[in-house]
Amino acid sequence: MFKEISIGFGLATIISLIVMGYDITPFIFLIAAGAGLFYLARARGMVSTKNFKSSSGTGRCEISFRDIGGQESAIQELREALDFIKHHQDIKNLGIRPLKGILLSGPPGTGKTLMAKAAASYTDAAFIAASGSEFIEMYAGVGAQRVRKLFQTARDSALRQKKTNAIIFIDEIEILGGKRGQTTSHLEYDQTLNQLLVEMDGLRVEDNVRVLLVAATNRADMLDPALLRPGRFDRRVKVDLPDKEGRKVILQLHTRNKPLARDVNLEIIAKETFGMSGAHLESLANEAAILAMREGCREISQHHFNESIDKVMMGGKLDKQPSELEMKRVAIHEIGHALVSEKVRAGSVSTLTITPRGEALGYMRQTPEDDTYLYTKDYLENQISVMLAGAVAEEIILGNRSTGSANDFEQAVRAAETMLRSGMSELGIVCLESLPQDLKHRTISGIVREQEEQVREYLTDLKEVFDNILKVLLEKEKITGEEFRSFIN
Asked: What residue intervals traverse the membrane (predicted)?
């Protein structure tokens, strides 16, 4: 009623101004601009159930914990937390406070979203997914309204599906739940987080629909302490990169619908993919299948996987072709890396190539050792030697160095700094914050220089080996570790 009266009064006013001979063009412009801003703000603020992805956790989209590999510890911890929802009557009888939030933290691509979907299937809950960026707007109050609507949508969705449980999954929670007081322009970020805290505090075990908030982040250090305290995010589940056995299980999951040749060895592939996440491994299996299709093969062979490892790690092959002199320098550089790598650990060279990929004109890929999380002084010194070998080889054979060694030097310095921080230098146990910069620089330089002299002494006696390998590498552009070791022997 008020809307109709306002419109009628506005039209009467405009007609009166026209009769009186006033120019109403500025008034019309202001009215149109105000109406446009009003409806834009209203459209921004309105949140319907269509803004959030809903899934019942049943049917073709169902994902269970069996479909997630390499995260047995994380899955077990998450399943224990979900049992509080699944067996709510037991916890009510024992007087246990229900969990309100579970935080999944870990590197990108490790399966946090899949675990949230599997949690919905495990608890037979309605599943509502959102991203932290969906709640941040320039208009005051919109973010808080969207948080309220998200929780209401979860309850309504569960009732429609005749379920008593609902799981809300918020990805990139650090955008929504960042530490308060860091944005000085306005308090919209803080208001949105405050509303999330209020909604979590309002969750009760007696509710018709029991709501559990599951969030994912790879920057847990950015979250506000009030969000992480007990009573809100009660459990923090670490979803880390898989180990070798985990990578093998993930590869088995992603190759179960692919025809594999008899020469495919997933154990070897798992060993050579140290540091890869589940997303990397899925991409690796997919790239191997694409390569087999391009070659017209009906089965995926081991060499398809080997090529895919290079592509996922380094990027696709580049069209640019370096000059003959540059190709020779790159080959010498990579041979230097490979010779020292074989010296410090026999059988470590997997591939040697001068084919440009990504930002690298060539590279030497090592066969990783068993997954290692602690490093000794000998190991770090050996790594520094391998990193310096390329530049030293250029200097011995060609008489000078190139800018291609810049990244190698950065890695060597980082390894030396790790030795210094771990008390493996001549200074013993030190505090880096209180250590003078000139002393720190001299110590790190001394560690690097010592390894450089040892590498130079070793490579100087191998000039004939350089010549033999160089001819073959320039001709074939890529040789395997077995071929490389045959030249050394």
From this structure: 12-40
